[in-house]
Design a protein that fits this description.
The protein starts with a strand and ends in a 6-residue tail after the last strand. Strand 1 (2-10), helix 1 (14-26) and strand 2 form a beta-alpha-beta unit. The chain is of the alpha/beta class. Helix content is 37%, strand content 15%. It has a single domain, classed as Glycoside hydrolase/deacetylase (TIM Barrel), CATH 3.20.20.370. This is ChbG/HpnK family deacetylase.
Length: 254
């Protein structure tokens, strides 16, 4: 078994970024993906580079804060205030695919301008699963930038298999429990037990980080992030992974 443990939302606040970096240097986090349109991304990218973290993914985003592009350029995917809708289901079905592609590409280009290396794409709130057209747009970008993408299609039976059919590198399995807002050790150990003797490449995605008052004002996940970080810093869990011959990798190694 090869295992990617990915920390979503790098850059949402500097404290979350600080926690993710700590988890990558001292714990089990092997990769992360950045919210590039966050006002904290620029500082967070500098923090990562200074810590020797040179590659990560982009957490492509259409549901948090404001777009990179002017709201007038992406009118079909923003509300009256010029900000993104908060959930994929609120994005109008009549959205303009050209506007979506332009915004997502702007996020990727801003990421590359930071000096970081792009090693995969995934999406905030799983927006790639909104519909088949949205998934196609993200897959087009993965092909254009020649990077892997998260296997979100495994969470949507009607879209399952499209990423593999497109020849895009990915994991064999994405594991998460949508009913629980944070990683739980019994569940995580169960995933390890299920796949430890297989050749599967598995991703476990979580939301580790340090919480602060700013985070409370912008995110529904606050204390849960500190819970995730503590779990992924647990040396007993690292011992368990090593004892069972599980190989920790990043998306850079796909």
């Amino acid at each position: 078994m090869k295992l990617i443990i990915n920390a979503d939302d790098f850059g949402i606040t500097t404290k979350v970024s600080e926690g993710i970096i700590h988890g990558m240097k001292q714990g089990l986090i092997t990769d992360t993906s950045a919210l590039v349109n966050s006002k904290h991304f620029e500082k967070s990218s500098v923090m990562a580079l200074e810590a020797g973290i040179t590659a990560m993914g982009v957490h492509l985003n259409l549901t948090f804060m404001a777009p990179m592009l002017q709201a007038s350029v992406v009118q079909s995917i923003v509300d009256e205030s010029g900000r993104f809708y908060r959930k994929p289901g609120l994005i109008p079905l009549s959205y303009d695919a050209r506007e979506v592609r332009a915004e997502l590409k702007a996020q990727i280009e801003a990421f590359l301008d930071s000096g970081l290396t792009l090693n995969h794409l995934d999406t905030h709130h799983g927006v790639s699963l909104k519909d088949a057209q949205m998934l196609d747009l993200v897959m087009e970008l993965a092909r254009e930038y020649n990077v892997p993408m998260r296997r979100d299609d495994l969470l949507s039976p009607e879209l399952s298999g499209k990423i593999a059919e497109a020849g895009i590198r990915s994991t064999d399995k994405l594991c998460g429990d949508p009913a629980v807002p944070s990683l739980q050790e019994p569940w995580l150990r169960g995933i390890l037990d299920e796949y430890k003797d297989t050749d599967c490449i598995v991703e476990i995605a979580g939301h580790p980080g340090y919480a602060d008052e700013e985070l409370r004002s912008i995110s529904s996940l606050v204390d849960e992030r500190e819970h995730d970080l503590a779990l992924l810093l647990n040396p007993a869990l690292r011992d368990y992974i090593e004892e069972h011959g599980i190989t920790l990798i990043s998306y850079s190694q796909l």
